[in-house]
Amino acid sequence: MSASTLITLLIVDILAIIIIALIIRGLWEPRHTIIDYAELHAPIGKSRDFVARPIFMHSEDIDGIDKYDLRVLYFSDLHAEYCRYDVGLFEKLIEKEAKGRGLDAVIFGGDIVNDPLNAEVGTEYLSRIAAVCLTNNIPFYGVTGNHDVMIPKDRIDACGFTDLRDKYVTLKSRKGEGVIALTGVYDTGRENRVWYAPASVPTELEDGTRVLANVLLAHNPDYILHLDQLYHDGAIVDPKTVEYDTAAVEEARARASDNYRSCKVTHVLSGHIHGGQIRTPIGIEFSVLRKDILPKKQKVIAGVYEGCGVSLFLSRGLGNILLPLRIFSRPEITIVEIYA
Ligand SMILES: [Fe+2]
After folding, report:
1. Which residues are in the CB-under-5-Å shell of ion ligand 1?
2. Over the stretch 102-152, which tens digit does the pLDDT of each residue have?
3. By CB neighbour count within 10 A (0-12 exposed, 13-18 middle, 19+ buried), where does 55 fall?
4. Distance between Cα 244 and ligand 1 center (Å)
5. DSSP assignment, residue 85?
6. Domain locations in the chain?
7. Rounded to the nearest whole angstrom, what is the distance from the C-alpha of residue 174 to the centroid of ligand 1?
8. How many other CB atoms sit within 10 Å of the CB of residue 1?
9. Cα separations (Å) of 235 from 9, 28, 148, 192, 241?
C-alpha cells in the first residue's frame, strides 16, 4: 500500500470518527437539559447594536434580602413531540424552586409543538406544568409561537397557562415597592407576518402603585427591532403578507396613541432561535436556514443581551425542531432574576 493511500485512509477514518462522535453528541444533548440562572438588569443605553451581557451569575442571597425584583422560571420552544426532558422532572424542579427561594411566575415563551396536528402532546405536557404551578400557588403565563398559529384556541386554553396575548398582568416587586408589568405578544408566523404593539401599560396603577418595569414576552427576538415603530404605528404588516386579520390591525392602529403614555418595554424574554440547535463553526444555521435578523446580523443567539433600549434574555429552548438532535446547543430551563 502506497503512502498516499495510507494518508487517504487515515483522513477517511478521522472524518468517520468525527461524524460518529457528532451524531452521538447530537443524540445525547437533547436528553441533557441544563437548569441555569440568568440576571436580567434594567437597560442602560439606547444603542441599536446588541451587546452580550454576562449570563449566569447565580446570586447567592448572603444577607437574606432579595436583590432582584422578580424571580421567574422561564422556558421556551417546548416542541413537545421532540422534547426529551421528562415532565416529571420538570414538576419536581418547580416544586424544589417553590420551596427554596420561591418563584414569582413560571413563564412559557411559545412553540408548543412542531406540528399543530400533534397539539395534544403539548397540551398534556403543559397542563401538567400548570397543575404543579396551581398546587404551589405560582402563576403560569405564556404566549404562542410561530409553530402554534394553526392550533385551535381551545387546545391552547387546555395548556393551562394564562395567555398574555394583548394583555398585561402585574407582579409585586420582591423589594416591596411597586410592581413589574408582564405583557405578551403572539407570533403570527413567518408566512403572513404582522407585528403588533404590546398592550399599553400605565406607569402607575389606579391605586398609585408605581410600575417599575415592563417585561415583554415575545417569541421571536426580532420583535425588538420593530418596537419603536410599533409604539408609533400600532401594527406593522410585512410587505409579503397576503392574509391577515385586518380588523385586528385597524384596532391596533387606533390604539397606537395610547402607547405614548404607556410604560415602555424594558425587558424582553424570547426564544425561537434554539441557540441554532445544530451549531456549526461557520454559522450556516443562521445564514442559510433561518431568516431571522438578530442572529444573522448581530450574533444574538442565546443568553443575555442589551440593545434597542431593552434587556433581552434569549432561551435556547427545551425541545427541538425537525429532529430530536442538538449539537453545541443544549436545551435549557432558566431561573431568571429580573431587576427593575
Ligand atoms: Fe421553536
Report:
1. 77, 111
2. 999 999 999 999 999 999 999 999 999 999 999 999 999 999 999 999 999
3. middle
4. 22
5. S
6. 32-338
7. 31
8. 6
9. 59, 42, 20, 13, 13
Please tell me the distance from the alpha carbon of residue 270 to that of residue 295, in angstroms, as a whole number. 13
CA–centroid distance, 11 to ligand 1, in Å, is 37
What string of DSSP letters covers 50-73?
-EEE--------SSSS--SSEEEE
Q: How far is the CA of 143 from the centre of ligand 1 (A)?
A: 12
CATH of span 32-338:
3.60.21
| CA–CA separation, 113 and 123 (whole Å) | 9
Identity of the residue numbered 212 = L
Walk along the chain (340 residues) in steps of 10 and give the mean pLDDT of each run: 89 93 91 93 89 70 75 98 97 97 97 97 98 98 97 97 96 93 96 94 94 98 96 94 93 85 93 92 80 92 95 97 90 96
Task: Using CA atoms of 277, 282, 285, 288 in order, give the dihedral in degrees to the nearest 10.
Answer: 180
